[in-house]
Amino acid sequence: MEVYSQQSSSLEKNTICQLQGIGVTFGSGSDRSEVLRDINLDMNLGDFVCVLGSSGCGKTTLLRVLAGYQPPTTGYVNVSGKRHFKPDADVGVVFQRPNLFPWLSIAKNVEFGPQMQGVSKLERKKKVSYYLDMVGLIDAAKLLPHQISGGMQQRAAIARTLAADPKIVLMDEPFGALDALTRESMQSHLQDIWERTQKTIFFITHDVEEALLLSTHIVVMHARPGRIVKIVDNPFAHGLKKQSAASLRVTPEFIHMREQLVASIHQD
Ligand SMILES: Nc1ncnc2c1ncn2[C@@H]1O[C@H](COP(=O)(O)OP(=O)(O)OP(=O)(O)O)[C@@H](O)[C@H]1O
């Protein structure tokens, strides 16, 4: 395992997304609050980056900068070599609560992005079937969001985001509102989807085990101001392909790594 505290790895040829010197300060005078300072991070094609950190350390603010919702006070974001400063189709977002359009069927929700992009009807149909199949929701295509479970809704939200073909997918605690069993099945669904699409994923979680089960890299942030203190190459990357979460979790290596990460979060 390689653990290193450097702030930025060198730009490689398959870098999809680059955060350079990101800082965010809200307010001014006595209300001034520096929420993020000098965040540098490169994400390569197919990376699954999990971000861990105590509550309020700035994870969501960082995701909002990446999405183009929050302009940084300093620094910039590049996606595929271009400045990214406003929301667009290159960056897809999945929130903690699946914000599906309640009046549209699951299929129409998934079709929405490609339709906005002017994709032909035939292509749209193909995309909808492909992504609904990927998330195991073919049979729910005609149902409305309120007619399916929370886990199914979140899978539909993931399919909707992927159907717009983003270069990078941002996820803000997407399984945080789900019960433990559904969460576990969603983790294995997401791992499978990621293996199949090879998308670059930026994933915020409070759950150290979730980060170890899913990611290729783990970013640890500390607060006041929010900053990256550690970037870890996850030795368990792709681990769910070889063994179940239950058997991985009890290995001494996994337990040791989990304890190390918990300690580094709490050094904050
Ligand atoms: N628009 C804003 N104006 C002022 N302060 C803000 C604003 N948005 C966020 N903050 C502050 O920035 C800090 C970081 O918030 P953020 O939501 O990014 O943290 P987080 O790590 O995602 O927290 P959690 O894990 O609890 O979701 C908090 O102190 C929050 O109050």
From TrEMBL:
Report whether Transport shows up as a keyword of the record: yes
Tell me the membrane topology, using the record's own terms.
Peripheral membrane protein
Which organism encodes this protein? Mastigocoleus testarum BC008
Belongs to which family? Belongs to the ABC transporter superfamily. Nitrate/nitrite/cyanate uptake transporter (NitT) (TC 3.A.1.16) family.
**What GO molecular function terms would the record report?**
ATP binding; ATP hydrolysis activity
The protein's matches in Pfam families, at most eight in alphabetical order, are given as: ABC_tran
Task: Name its cellular compartments.
Answer: Cell inner membrane
How is this protein annotated for GO cellular component? Answer: plasma membrane
Query: Would you tell me the protein name for this molecule?
Result: Taurine ABC transporter ATP-binding protein
Q: Which UniProt keywords apply?
A: ATP-binding, Nucleotide-binding, Transport
**PROSITE patterns reported in the protein's UniProt record:** ABC_TRANSPORTER_1 (PS00211), ABC_TRANSPORTER_2 (PS50893)
Q: Where does the source fall among the domains of life?
A: Bacteria
UniProt domain ABC transporter: residue ranges: 19-248
Which InterPro entries does the record associate with it?
Answer: AAA+_ATPase, ABC_transporter-like_ATP-bd, ABC_transporter-like_CS, ABC_transporter_ATP-bind, P-loop_NTPase
